[in-house]
Amino acid sequence: MRNPNGYGSVVKLSGNRNRPFHVRKTVGWNEKGHPIYQTLDYTKTREEGMILLAEFNRDPWDVDKANITLEKLFELWLERKAVKMGKSNQKSMKSAYGHCKSLVSTKYTEIKAYHMQDTIDHCGCAYSTQGAINTTL
Questions:
Q1: Using the 8-state DSSP alphabet, how is residue 92 labeled?
Q2: Are residues 126 and 78 part of one domain?
Q3: Greatest pairwise CA separation for the chain in angstroms
Q4: How far apart are CA 134 and CA 128, in angstroms?
Q5: Which end of the chain is more exposed for a tag (fewer CB within 10 A), N or C?
Q6: Strands of 9-12's sheet, edge to edge?
Q7: How far apart are CA 102 and CA 34, in angstroms?
Q8: Domain final residue pick, 19, 35, 61
């Protein structure tokens, strides 16, 4: 069955992949008349992709991952993933995030390995905290 116009699509990508189904939505057309796609996510099954597409069309979210800052990404993580973790792990990750204050307003895609290493080197904490900082970044 076809999706309505402007709804989006789920397509299977070639090759041996963990998540072979590409969930996408057309956001415009280029000068040659080809569609410009916005990637929503990749899923393991077509059914998961259709559910994700239905959720997106019911309540759209911002998928502009290129402009997200470390602070916004951490807030999203707190909302979605931290609630599933234990209290001790949550405190450890929040503490590690506190050591990353110099990178908070930086776009996540612009954070490079030397930024991460500099943050870890100058935190002045033990190995476990350094590992948590590495996980946070």
A1: H
A2: yes
A3: 59
A4: 10
A5: N
A6: 9-12, 21-29, 35-43
A7: 42
A8: 61
Kindly report the length of the chain. 137
Domain that holds residue 37: 9-61
Burial (CB count <10 Å: 0-12, 13-18, 19+), residue 46: middle
- DSSP 8-state class, residue 107: B
81 and 118 Cβ atoms separated by less than 8 Å: no
Asked if residue 87 has pLDDT above 80, the reply is: yes
* DSSP H or E stretch at residue 50: helix 46-58
Question: How much is the pTM?
Answer: 0.52
At residue 6, the pLDDT reads 85
Q: Per the domain annotation, does 2 fall within a domain?
A: no
SS3 (DSSP) at 124? coil
Residues facing residue 70 across a β-bridge: none
Partners of residue 24 on adjacent β-strands: 9, 39
* Token couple for 70: 């470390």
